[in-house]
Structure formats: C-alpha cells, structure tokens
# Entry
Amino acid sequence: DEMHGLKPACREALYRAMEDRIVIPMAKAGKPGAAVKLPAFTLIGATTDEWGLLPSLLQRFKYRVRMERMSAADLALAISQRSLRKGWSVTAEAAGMIADRAHGTPRLAIGLLDGAMDVALAGGSTDIDAMIVQATADIWRIDSLGLDNTARKYLQHLADANGPLRLNVVASKLEGLSRRTVEMRVEPELVYLGLITKESNGRWLTAAGKQHLKEQL
# Structure
C-alpha cells in the first residue's frame, strides 16, 4: 500500500525481484550480500500518487487498474455492513449522512463512522443516529459535503475573485500551503463534487460551488 512512500533503494530492489525473482540484500557495510532466490509470487501495489513512482518501476507492472469512487448508496451499504460486524447500531439516515460526506472514498467513510462512535460513547450510548453524525461533523468542522475549513476557504477565495485564479495564487492564500498540497489534497475533492473547474487560465468556481457557499452562510 502507498508504494510511492518506499525508499528509493527498496523500489530499486523490486526490479530484480519482478524480473528475475532475485533479491540482493545490503549488508551493514553497504556492500551487497548473497542473492536470495524467490519462489513464484504476485506483487500487488497501490498508490494515491502515481507520479511519485519512478517510471522504471511503474512500467514493470503489466496490469494497471484505476480504482473508481464508490456511489453514496454503495458507501452507505458498506457503512451499515461494517457497523453490523462491529456490533454497532447505526440508523439508515446516519449511514447516508456519513456517505454523503465521504466523497466516494471508503477510508473517509470509515474514519467518520469511527469518529461518530467515539462521540456516541462519550455520551454514554452505543447508537449512532443523525444527531450523533451531525455532532461529529461539527467537532471535525466539516460541512454537509464533507468539506473542511481549507476547502471552504478555497471556494471563498474564488468567489471573492469573481473570476479565475491560478493555482499558485490560490495556494498563497491558503495559509502557506504548497501548490502540490493544494493540487493533490484539496482540489480533487472539489472537482469531484463539481464545485470548481480547472481551466487553462486558472480555477473557476462553478454554479454548484457558489450555491454551496450560500448554503453555509
């Protein structure tokens, strides 16, 4: 998981493993040790940052699959199933509220579900209903679409500009966040939700983005 986080030496060691089923360990002195022959194996790698992988490693994967986001209905079902396995009581409305804030991403849904259970337990209950989910969202400072303060500020800067803003300008206004952080961590959710568009002359706020800002007032 998250193969882009592997150290360069570990990635390079995979080349021989994938091509020749051989691993050459490094001794403490920095010298290569005796080659280790591997049995037949299947390597499955996952990453959320494809460009963080060296092309020479990426090209060695013969079959690539791009995962799609789940629908809100599928996420709500997954939340209900996870709750059932854990012995938690979650209403259908609460599951739907969590799914609506998860942007089609199971990891976000699970995190919010676990957070809601923490809030329920703090109140002496083991039941998660709509009020518990809303209380959790308030604590996490996320809105009805699951956007945090940074994402809302992004939208507000576009609204204030009343026109397109380039990425570097938006990033400079977001508490010193780097362009890469904004592009890789903030914008994908806003594009997915249809709140912004990315054009050659900059980022534009869509009608849906304007409407969402009005709803937050």
